[in-house]
Write a structure and sequence with these properties.
Blueprint lengths: L1 H9 L23 H9 L7 H9 L4 H11 L6 H6 L19 H7 L1 H14 L9 H6 L8 H28 L5 H19 L7 H6 L1 H6 L2
């Protein structure tokens, strides 16, 4: 801690006679503005790399789903490892879905054997074979079907957020309601959530849930 403080102090240039002031790092001129604060919270500032965040906010989803995705991008969910870093100590730090490794974000959503089953179900359902990244933003960016256009792929990314949301919801159900771990249930609920979001947010969606369930690729091509 002392070394970090010294590094910060040594990196500053002190001017005799000038009063101390606050400087907002979100703007070049150092002046705080509501817009700069909003952009920082939205994850659109340059230091975070805005491409993935722009894709996230442009998805046709309910705000609650987008906000969860934003928290995942920034690793702000209260996973057990994150809770420990904040001084909160759960009874044990193992993943509730597999009980094999510590529950951090990368493991829970992408490396856990149970979560991988869900992603593999999604691959088989849409008819692709791919390797999933363990970093959330890279995984989101590569959740992409090459023969769909950008608008159709933006809708498809809603399925990514649906899976993330259902994994998190299922994990909480296991902890607080003693649910049985069930990857099939996670994927089934994600399929339903993605379809409901499309019906709610995209007026041109005319296909039924059974169409979506049986032929998701065809449904996406008609968007």
């Amino acid at each position: 801690m002392e070394e970090q403080l010294l590094c910060v102090i040594n990196g500053q240039r002190l001017c005799k006679g000038n009063p101390d002031t606050w400087k907002w790092k979100g703007e070049v001129d150092g002046i705080f503005s509501v817009k700069a604060a909003y952009n920082t919270l939205q994850g659109t500032v340059e230091i975070e790399g805005n491409k993935d965040f722009k894709l996230l906010w442009n998805t046709k989803l309910i705000p609650k789903a987008q906000m969860l995705g934003w928290r995942v991008f920034l690793d702000k969910l209260p996973t057990k490892v994150n809770l420990q870093a904040r001084g909160v100590h759960p009874q044990q730090s193992l993943c509730e879905l597999c009980y094999a490794y510590e529950e951090n974000e990368e493991h829970l959503f992408f490396s856990c054997s149970m979560s991988q089953k869900v992603w593999n179900m999604c691959n088989r359902w849409i008819g692709v074979s791919t390797v999933h990244h363990v970093k959330a933003r890279a995984n989101f960016q590569h959740f992409h079907l090459f023969d769909l256009n950008s608008r159709q792929n933006l809708v498809w990314k809603g399925m990514w957020l649906a899976i993330i949301g259902e994994i998190w919801k299922h994990r909480n159900g296991v902890i607080f309601n003693h649910k049985k771990v069930d990857p099939i249930e996670i994927f089934d609920q994600a399929q339903v959530a993605a379809w409901v979001w499309m019906k709610h947010k995209i007026p041109t969606v005319k296909f039924s849930y059974s169409d979506w369930y049986l032929s998701p690729y065809t449904c996406l091509k008609f968007l």
